[in-house]
Amino acid sequence: MILGFARRWSLISYLIAVILTLPLLAIIVQAAVPGEAIFAHLLDTVLPTYIFNTLALMLCVCIGAVVLALPAAWCIARCDFPGRQLFQWALLLPLAMPAYVVAYVYTDLLDYAGPIQRGIRAVFGWQSPQDYYFPDVRTLMGAAVMLALVLFPYIYLLARTAFMEQSSSLQHAARVMGCSPWQSFWRLSLPMARPALAVGASLVAMETAADFATVSYFSVPTLTTAVYDTWLGYGSLSAAAKLSAIMLLVIFCMIGSERFARRKQKLFQKQAELNERDRYPLSAPKAWLATFYCAGLLLLAFLLPFGVLVSYAWQYFEVSWNHEFLQYSINSLYIALLVALLTAVIAIVLMFVRRCSPRRSDLLPSRLASTGYALPGTVLAIGILVPLTYMDFTINDIYAYFDRQGPGLVLSGSIFALIFAFSIRFVAIAIGSVESSYKRISPTLDMASITMGLRPNALLRKVHLPLLRKGIFAGVLLVFIECMKELPAALLLRPVGFENLATYVFQFVSDEQLEHGALAAIVIVLVGFIPLIYLNRSLEHNT
Amino acid sequence: MSTLKIEDVHSDYQGLVILNGLSLNIQRGEIAALLGPSGCGKTTLLRAIAGLQPISAGRISINKRLLSGDEHFVPSEQREVGMIFQDYALFPHLTVADNILFGVKGLTSAERQARLTEMLALVKLDGLEKRYPHELSGGQQQRVSIARALAYEPELLLLDEPFSNIDAKVRNEMMLEIRSILKQRDVSAIFVTHSKDEAFVFADKLALFNQGAIVQYGCAEALYSAPADKYVAEFLGEGNYLAAQVVDGFTVSTPLGMLVSTAPMLFDVGHKGELLLRPEQIDIHANGQGDGLIVERRFLGSNCYYRVLVGTQGYDVRSAKNDLALGERVHLAVIPHSLVLLSPAE
């Protein structure tokens, strides 16, 4: 805190916050404007189904992810079994897989013409689909399973950390008081890990709500696909905005419940970590069961789909390694880089003001700016199109007033919209990263600097920036990767004829030709590995 | 001429009064300790002087230059005060040399080098200028922070509990060393602590805090032997408090009999109060017919502590005589001194 910190800094941070919350405001305003025919029509016909599908999907994915993640998390945190060290980080790998790629691979394997069903038919001598029952993958439940397979690592990661942080003395106490390991799991470990599970589940639910590609590929209509179709199909921005508002309502309810679950988290994290020696030594059959479970999970969620991708890429390398692939990779790279640097600068400015300003009101901008992360890509895209098209029209009207040819859709129809959207969606990551770095800088360093005559800008340059270097770098890296992966916003906002890796891969998925896009998909997956390594390492250091 | 002048300063934080009408003057070259229990506002005052914390009323000035108050506020970076922090606040990304020269401005590189050499010699860290803070011991870090605070020649040095992280064995030595550095350079300093022992060793003057105000200010001896009230008396040392009534200008009547002061007391005849007797102000003699009984004895090295029961009242006595045994009968006598009569606590 610096008394007499110049107000122009506050002004800048508020300006940034307002610009970054513009889409959210646009959606709220649009939702309040009286409805038009299309929305009323949707409301009467398909909207209830969409809402039901969205909620059902969220619930199923959460349950599925918890069921998949919890045994693995507990075994890895509390037991010793062969391969524990490996699975500890390897179970994070599925996070790098785009769900729609996994969905594609399993559809290919499991549908009527796929190898599994062909094998079954060959073994039993069946001739047609009437002869036997086989579950259809391309359903809501199928989509839920696919999403759970790639999203369970969120819960695994948080639950594992929570289990590891539970102090051994508590476990000892429970054991002394006569709890078996199994009872102590139900009576102690699980209730204490509940806040972490709630946080993980809400992350999973938010990712599910934001998912566009998987449900679109499986033709399961949800609010997200509805937003997309309403804009691209009916061309109604206002109806799309109203759907987005419903979506936001769902998301904000979730964030509220997550905050509620998190309010006691501090209590749980204060305790000393679990001692290495306090892991349960498992008997041989149990230990192999644990190994088998983790290996199976890893195989289904990552190794199998990734293996299929690699084999596609190998077979179709000649076709895939072409000018388009290189061009779209470069597109992805430079947009991601630009956004990563931009968000880093924004994060530094906002957090610097937050740290130095003596005014309580200056806590707000960084919080406001972080709300963008809660907006699913499609919703964000609509929220951006509303103000940008308005501005485009205004610009062209001004040109027309002077009898000049207007520049067209300079904002909404260019990569500006894309960069704007990505920045809003991912600035929260950069802010979080810079914020946690700032927490490690003792406030007395600031006091020492300014008592030695440093002005605020010099404080930022000479003290904060050198010490924040790591946090800034981590933020840049994470934002970069998220930008490489983000699909729905890119689909809606890309200028005509512009593709990046994600849209390119999705194009092949929807055309049932992933073979040709496998190389691009592998690039996305490999880039996605980087944050996992970073994430795992930072957790290892903390715990 | 006074270096620091604090007049009727108030400060509150979220409706909580932290400083409540506080005034203090510090002379040039003087080291003052702000002493008090934690949460009494002493660190707040220190930060207010440095311009790191707002004040809601009052004035703070250094060398007649108004820093805070009367709608006027000089930012911290223009106050020219040095500050030494409890955690030293050394910049982890800078070497010892860069840390020390951090606040030094407007010198040629040769002059900077000379200043650095001088500072390193002063704090006895010659040869360590290329090290990073994490490569130093706690005491060395402490000395770097002192060199850093003195290198830019501030008007006033503020020390925020600088010795609390130092090992008890070397603490005294460290304090004396730093005190001599400050005295050598004639620097005025304010020093925050909650330990009376640190304050006695390090400071020239003590300001005893209670709930956001200074209860008493003066040199250590004055506060110890003539405390303004029971709070001060208790904070600075052990004591026996006897019900007493003034008989005449020099005499009071107490459970230990009539006691005569070596200096006149400014109370009316008949005034009732509590007489403070420090444990070392009571003399103890073995006496088979004495009315005192030793019920507790602790050997403390250079002296011995006794708990003596006279009738129903217990007395704490500290004496160089260490040959008295538990259960022995003794006689207590008050060593003549200027008696301190306190108003009874409410």
Q: SSE layout and pairings?
A:
The complex is a heterodimer of chains A (543) and B (346).
Chain A: H1 7-32, H2 37-44, H3 47-78, E1 79-80, H4 84-90, H5 99-110, H6 115-124, H7 140-165, H8 168-176, H9 181-210, H10 213-217, H11 223-234, H12 237-262, H13 265-269, E2 280-281, H14 284-315, H15 317-320, H16 323-356, H17 364-370, H18 377-401, H19 415-439, H20 443-451, H21 456-485, H22 488-493, H23 501-510, H24 514-542
Helix pairs in contact in A: 1-12, 1-16, 1-17, 1-18, 3-7, 3-9, 3-14, 5-7, 5-14, 7-9, 8-9, 9-12, 11-12, 12-18, 14-24, 16-19, 16-21, 18-19, 19-21, 21-24, 23-24
Chain B: E1 2-13, E2 16-27, E3 31-35, H1 42-50, E4 57-62, E5 65-69, E6 72-73, E7 81-84, H2 96-100, H3 109-122, H4 138-151, E8 156-160, H5 168-184, E9 188-193, H6 196-202, E10 205-210, E11 213-219, H7 220-225, H8 230-236, E12 240-246, E13 251-254, E14 257-260, E15 272-277, E16 282-286, E17 292-299, E18 304-310, E19 313-319, E20 329-334, E21 340-342
Parallel strand pairs in B: 3-9, 3-10, 7-8, 8-9
Antiparallel strand pairs in B: 1-2, 1-4, 4-5, 5-6, 10-11, 12-13, 12-15, 13-14, 15-21, 16-20, 17-18, 17-20, 18-19
Helix pairs in contact in B: 3-4
Domain ABC transmembrane type-1 (chain A): 51-255, 329-535
InterPro entries (chain A): MetI-like (IPR000515), MetI-like_sf (IPR035906)
Organism (chain A): Shewanella algidipiscicola
